[in-house]
Each structure stands twice: as C-alpha cells, then as structure tokens.
Inverse folding.
C-alpha cells in the first residue's frame, strides 16, 4: 500500500479504536523513513503509527492475493512488483473511494496533510520533503488518474539507484489492472479487520 492507503487505514483504525489519529497518520508517513527498532526516539503515538505502517506492509507483502498479482507481471518486472502494486492499490482505493469513505477524497487528503505537516520540522529530512511535496501538489487526491500513477512510478524510478522498469511499466500494469483491482477488493477489507484485531487493545499514552 502507498500513502493514500496508509493514511486511510490509519484514519479508519483511529476511528474504531480511539488511538491517536494524528500519531497514526504521522506514522503512515514516517514508516518509509524510520528504520530499525523503535526505542522511544519519537512520541509514543507516532511510534504506534510507524508500527502500524510496518504491519500493513508486512501483511500486504506476504498475502496470497498479492503473490497472485505479482505472478501475472512480466518476469522482468517482478523484482519491482511490490512498488508497482503499492501504487496500483492506491489507484484502486481512489477509484472506489466513495464506497469506502464518507467524506470526499479531497477533503480527506487536505485533513491528512494538515495533521502531518504540523510537525514536519521533527521528521527525517526526506520525510519532511515528501509530505511537503504531497501537500503542495495534492498528489493523493489525484490517484484516480492513470497518468498520475505513471508519473508517480517515474518519480520513484529516479530514486532507485539501479536500472529499473518503473518509468515505463504503466502500459503493462494497465492491461492487468482489472485483475489487480479484483484482488485489492478482497484484500483491503481483510486487511482492515486484521489490523483492527491486532491494534484494538492498544492505547495511546
């Protein structure tokens, strides 16, 4: 899952459990930038959010439905298939947004940006740059556009140090999108329930 799904799952979990929403949203960003054991270097609510981010990634990466998606990609793409699918899943979520969330997507994303931007001076520099970029261009409310999906993959390609297919994989992914969306629609509610079961006993100090 990419940022839209991480923020949405954080919001849903906070709504159902009473966990600190801002902390979960911040963790939804920082999970890509904070590595290694969590040892209290960040506020407890943020570290719960980072743990949530990591758990979302672990559950998604190991899920049979995701493995089936990877299996239909061209062999040369599979090394980077996880990245491709993360972005595709945000696209699928965006397309189904009105079925999965009560408020319009642009209202949701603006609220997320406001929550996460408040503390950007305390984030790793790369994380601060990322949330600034997402907010300035309102990237997450535009994930329904396949052109924007291809543009995002091309931006990610530039950050990968070795040659990769991310900048030109859009056509092949588009051909497989109906299957990917079908898998997503089974995966996403199961993921929500698993996360609720695992995190519902936690409380924010």
């Amino acid at each position: 899952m990419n940022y839209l799904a991480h923020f949405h799952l954080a919001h849903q979990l906070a709504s159902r459990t009473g966990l600190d929403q801002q902390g979960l949203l911040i963790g939804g960003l920082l999970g890509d930038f904070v590595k290694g054991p969590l040892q209290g270097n960040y506020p407890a609510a943020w570290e719960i959010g980072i743990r949530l981010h990591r758990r979302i990634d672990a559950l998604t990466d190991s899920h049979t439905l995701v493995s089936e998606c990877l299996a239909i990609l061209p062999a040369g793409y599979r090394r980077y298939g996880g990245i491709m699918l993360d972005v595709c899943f945000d696209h699928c979520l965006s397309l189904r947004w009105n079925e999965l969330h009560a408020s319009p997507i642009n209202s949701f994303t603006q609220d997320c940006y406001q929550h996460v931007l408040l503390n950007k001076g305390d984030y790793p520099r790369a994380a601060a740059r990322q949330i600034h970029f997402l907010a300035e261009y309102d990237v997450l409310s535009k994930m329904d556009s396949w052109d924007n999906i291809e543009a995002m993959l091309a931006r990610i390609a530039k950050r990968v140090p070795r040659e990769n297919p991310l900048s030109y994989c859009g056509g092949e992914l588009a051909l497989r999108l109906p299957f990917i969306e079908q898998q997503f629609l089974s995966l996403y509610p199961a993921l929500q329930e698993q996360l609720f079961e695992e995190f519902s006993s936690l409380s924010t100090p």
Summary: Residues 3-199 form one domain. Residues 75 and 81 are 10 Å apart (CA to CA).
